[in-house]
Amino acid sequence: MTDLEIVNGIKEGGVAGSKAIGFLYEQNKFEINSFLEKWKSQECAKEPNDIIWEGMEALVNNIINGKYQIQEGIYLKTYLKSILKNLWFKHLSSEKARMGRQHAYHQGNEGLEMDVSEILAEKEIWDAYLAVFEKVGKNCKRILQMFFGLGYSIKELAQQLMKEGLYENEQVVRNAKSKCLKRVTKQLVDKKQKWI
Asked: Where is the domain boundary, 72, 87, 108?
């Protein structure tokens, strides 16, 4: 893919956007990882992959918002690398400051125990959310993952599910998506009332 095709794919969004982002990542991952690994320290909380996806997100936002324009001699991968370099050095700088604060905090609070009940309560809520999502059924779960997780438009979602013979037309897919959302919302509201 050329830079123009990648930019147009990202602007189009949906499956085209995902393919463009995937191509850009695959095309540059070795070089980017090598650069980030060179500067990684053992105390670093973030992995290079975290920074890469933050950089990809920033690049996509800049393209969509018109902050990036294709110019002769300025390649998209060079622009991405400059974003990643800035993010990585900013992270390393803030990581050093965080370590200093953490060290000072631990010196001032030796002997205090972590509140385990808060951690367990939060885990219980997340487990309940995941259980609701698992209960909605295979087709419903797939629709929600494709629409919200993978960024399919309703038209792309309908085309894929119709091609697989799961639904007859786009309107039926729209109705199924709406029912899925209502089902998930109702179960989450019921669970939340039990927690209160």
From this structure: 108
Domain that holds residue 57: 3-108
- How far apart are alpha carbons 35 and 88 in whole angstroms? 10
pTM of the model: 0.45
- For residue range 141-188, list pLDDT tens digits in order: 888 888 877 788 889 889 989 998 888 999 999 999 888 888 888 877
Instruction: State whether 123 and 188 are in the same domain.
Output: yes
Q: Are 187 and 117 in contact (CB under 8 A)?
A: no
Are residues 69 and 133 located together in one domain of the fold? Answer: no
Separation of alpha carbons 59 and 61, rounded Å: 5
How many other CB atoms are there within 10 angstroms of residue 177's CB atom?
20
Q: Are residues 52 and 147 in the same domain?
A: no
